[in-house]
Amino acid sequence: MEKKNIDWSSLGFGYVQTDYRYVSNFKNGAWDEGVLTQDANIVLNECAGVLQYAQTVFEGLKAYTTEDGRIVCFRPDLNASRLEDSAKRLEMPVFPQDKFIEAVEKVVAANAAWVPPYGSGATLYLRPYMFGSNPVIGVKPADEYQFRILCTPVGPYFKGGAKPITIRVSDFDRAAPHGTGHIKAGLNYAMSLHAIVSAHHEGFDENMYLDPATRTKVEETGGANFLFVTKDGKVVTPKSSSILPSITRRSLVYVAKEYLGLEVEEREVLLSEVPDMAECGLCGTAAVISPVGKIVDHGKEICLPSGMTEMGPVTKKLYETLTGIQMGRIEAPAGWVHEIKVD
Ligand SMILES: *Cc1c(COP(=O)(O)O)cnc(C)c1O
Fold first, then answer.
1. Per-residue pLDDT, 156
2. Whose CB among 28, 148, 169, 314 lies 3.0–4.6 Å from 229's, allowing a Cys bridge?
3. What is the pTM of this model?
């Protein structure tokens, strides 16, 4: 199969239209067969549930080429089950988990020419999502839904090495207690846009959100979970019912314990403890770990000892081990690397 003629390493994180996307519709209480289509546009009624009341949930994962030339995805079963949790919380029908995996396999195989080669640092980003598609004006769940997976090639997250970022403690909240912070819903992002635009305007890369009830505990950023390393080498990650359960963070916790023999604590993390931490990173599919060098709390600077030039040593070890597992350089736990057959 011939690859597209693209300068993979110069790609950013933006939408590039690929050849195929997967579409399945839910109507009269059942999902249809599902098809691949070349049509990138969606025609919706003006009153569709998603347009009026934001009834939509999504996922994000990557397809990429391993060192030995296979096309794979990383733990897509966890995306399937998280999408199920998200759908249930917004009163949407569940897209069956086995069909989710099948749809991922089909759409990646159809777009194999768009999967960047090993070593380019680029990947094919997959965006599964579903939304209420029939007209809804009284507030209630839609009766009809569409599930889609679009693919877009994205460039290496770190161009020229991982540079630590500076974040601020946000005055805005991301998720209410007992709200929707734990599901991957567009609505959590809509309300974060003002906070991120104002953070960028003030020269910060990201927002650190605190728990809205007490404003004393670290939650997460707009799209990534926190991982801290203590001065005695323990990995600490915040536990809260309003954090989105990152697949990257869960994988890193396993790697820390089982591959690196580190002690890991998943617990509430007070903002007041952060000045005592040695390292800090943000975990998510896009970057795996993005190192944090400085956290600004209303003018008060918390400078992580790992500094502003490179990842801290433990963060780096975690990063290299997980990316090694993903790329096939280090043996993966069973089921983590899901091969896509391309014929
Ligand atoms: C998607 C997401 C993450 C990262 O999850 P991964 O499964 O690791 O990609 C973290 N926080 C929020 C709010 C997210 O939406």
1. 85
2. 314
3. 0.97
